[in-house]
Amino acid sequence: MPPLLINKRISLKKEVNIMLTYTVRRLLSLIPVLIGMTLVVFAIIHAIPGNPAQVILGQRATAEAIANLTRQLGLDRPWYIQYFEYIKSLLHGNLGTSLQTRGPINEEIWPYLAATAELTIVAMFIAIMVGVNAGIISAWFSKSWFDYVAMVLALIGVSMPIFWLGLMGQWAFSIELGWLPTTGREDVRDPVTAITNIYLLDTLLQGRFDQFGTVLKHLILPSFALATIPMAIIARMTRATMLEVMKSDYIRTARAKGLRMFWVVYKHSLKNAIIPVLTVIGLQTGLLLGGAILTETIFGWPGIGRYLYDAIGYRDYPVIQSGILVIAAIFVLINLVVDLLYVFVDPRIKYTK
Amino acid sequence: MKKRSILVLLISLLAISMFLAGCNTKTNTDADGKKNPGTSNGSKKDTLVYGRGGDSTSLDPITTTEGEAFKVTQNIFETLLVYGEQDTTIHPGLAEEWNTSDDGLTYTFKLRQGVKFHDGTDFNADAVVFNFDRWMNGNEDKFPYYTMFGGYKADEGHVIKEVKAVDPNTVQFILKRPQAPFLKNIAMSPFGIASPAAVEKWGDDFRSHPVGTGPFKFVEWKQKDRITIEKNPDYWQKGLPKLNKIIFRVIPENTARLNALANGEIDVMDGLNNSDEATVLANDKLQIIERPSMNVGYIGLTTNRPPLDNKLVRQAINHAIDKKSIIDAFYGGKALAAKNPMPPSIEGYNDAIQEYPFDLEKAKALLKEAGFEKGFEMDLWAMPVARPYMPEAKKVAEVIQDSLGKIGIKAKIQSVDWPTYLEKARKGEFDAFMLGWTGDNGDPDNFIYTLLDKDSIGSNNYAYYSNEELHKILIEAQTETEQSKRNELYKKAQEIIHEDAPWVPLVHSTPLLAAGKDVLNYLPHPTGSECLLNVEFK
């Protein structure tokens, strides 16, 4: 083996090692973050008034029954005991039991997460495809009519209330045009058999292409509604960084060499402009996964946002705590993935020990 | 190399778009077939999709007091006696006949023979005894509605001494003392008879695996999304139910739910906004269905908080509120101005009572007499949620604030989230507040005793109203089994309440549902949940 190749291999190995150490270190640093998170959430929800026992027993309950149930749920114990009990069961991998359904949260939470994940992935796909390209073209032909129109649309996209947009979408595309269904994830009269609870995947796994189409149609309105804000932010971000990069010397050199503009823009410029955009994409994905309560409410989407929202209305403490914890964990993990992605996009970025 | 990758990209894009187009045409034909989706074998539509705002919390009806649960369980479980289709008169259910001993202490039920639970086990007297034993040995956390029988086994107030199987088809209830609404209680949805075998098999999980004798069997529950039930082929009423399947879908937002209805994705929706009635009427594919009213929306005037502890002040407030304009503005005219704490459809309603007329001068005079000529300040709490009896509490509160301003009372509108609202109300922390009640069993006791007796302070008597004379009357009425005497007692009770004015009774509203024009025989029940036994499509 030629010595050069060996050297290269050794340095590659070293690099992988560094990356691994970095990842492990980042993962370890997650632990205090998550513990801090539980403490904050615990403090906040216990500070708000409203007794879960009252809510569970409903408007018709007697005072005595409320007192009994409060005791039974352990809500009369000092807060620090309640907190340590909770942490103890968390360390056993147990997210707790829902007060409302009395089922284990570990099992209950998955379908909601999957529903939200599906919606988020499609929404982010749309947001990235449209947003990045609109940003690039706006920068490429900056100060053209396309640029102005795209940026005005982006401004509208950021400021448009999802609530209104969602209902208008339903009215236009469902009721007036009859192209798309208004709400839900599937045709309930011909329901999807859940395997992973990500229906696009489930229908393909079962070879039900007709259902795949139906599921896709159900996704269009909510994912577009959900995509508007990230799409607009991504477009503006991409445009800004692209403009910057396209002014740089090496781009001028590339163009002077006679490279086709398309390649200059999509390869040479984009690669350098994408880092901040990637950050925004990571943050936005995390936000959307945290549950888009409004979108999920309007479109009757049984996602994590509604799971949490209902839990708050019900003062279902374990669900609120564990739900927020899971979302926070996902949020942090996505950002870790984004940080690691930087290295692949831009070899100049290196994480040292 | 690069050209090739572009080519690959283009081809794959083409492939994807063709695939999507393919899906599109396929679903388009589905959409065309939307006129009759949900058919099991061709011609007639037999799957009903019911859209509602919230999911059930349990499908074991005795474990909850929450109305969304009963909308489903009413179709899975049956009670010994049932209510009339649209009223609360008593009819045979799982019991074919019944009789009451002269002293009102023994009730004997002859059970229907040949009825089977969905799991194939027999319905018989032992099953009834099993269910009542299960409930009376529980507590308010487990089986909250069982308090309709005065408490649990160990409680002194518990009216049932014993439930016994005389023979396989006869059940006897022996009471400690007469309970006037006993039969009406027996017919309430929470007391649906469950399969003992299934209860034992599932334990606590029975709440998500319900097994009864009803016209529909439980199929699937996807939480916060839908519950599916299907026809019980062995149902004892031959030829029924007419539907093959019912899917209860959750669509939280009212307007989105109406959109789904207009688009044919659901067949029936509840919780229609009064303001959307015109939209439904303008659509020739839709119809409005009215639920008979059995509710009351009111403003509570917490009677132990000055200056509301003064009867004259409370009467003055009653004079100051223009119910008619509130009804026209917020209930689309579809509500009855209330003068009593219970609706007229309930036996014992006192129609002779004269409503406090809307009269600002009179109100001012009363305030002057009470020593508040210059008025005073108070909080007016508005519910944060929509309820059938109060669809737009905050807007109604603004109208009331305005009226009260005219007699010098400065009302500050306050609100807080619903769980906190109920808790504060229970603790008597409000001055004036808006609330309401939907009847459970059509008995006056369920309104007047539950909402205004001194025993109910700390639970549902949020106005902290206490009157010894009223208390005596209400307790007497609970055990009085002769109907005419009982009605007289309640009429007297309403007079006392009218005079003391612990509330401003506002409205008895008519909750609205909307449905596709092809839905037939949908008869909403005043209690808020109905069995869809006879519902079918045109």
From TrEMBL, chain B:
One of its GO terms (cellular component) is ATP-binding cassette (ABC) transporter complex. It comes from the Bacteria. Residues 89-456 form the Solute-binding protein family domain. Keywords: Signal, Transport. One of its GO terms (molecular function) is peptide transmembrane transporter activity. Pfam families: SBP_bac_5. The keyword Signal applies. Residues 1-21 form the signal peptide. The keyword Zinc does not apply. Residues 27-52 are annotated as: Disordered. GO terms for biological process: peptide transport. Gene3D superfamilies: Dipeptide-binding Protein, Domain 1 (3.90.76.10), Dipeptide-binding Protein, Domain 3 (3.10.105.10), Periplasmic binding protein-like II (3.40.190.10). Belongs to the bacterial solute-binding protein 5 family. PANTHER family: OLIGOPEPTIDE-BINDING PROTEIN APPA, PERIPLASMIC BINDING COMPONENT OF ABC TRANSPORTER. This is Solute-binding protein family 5 domain-containing protein.
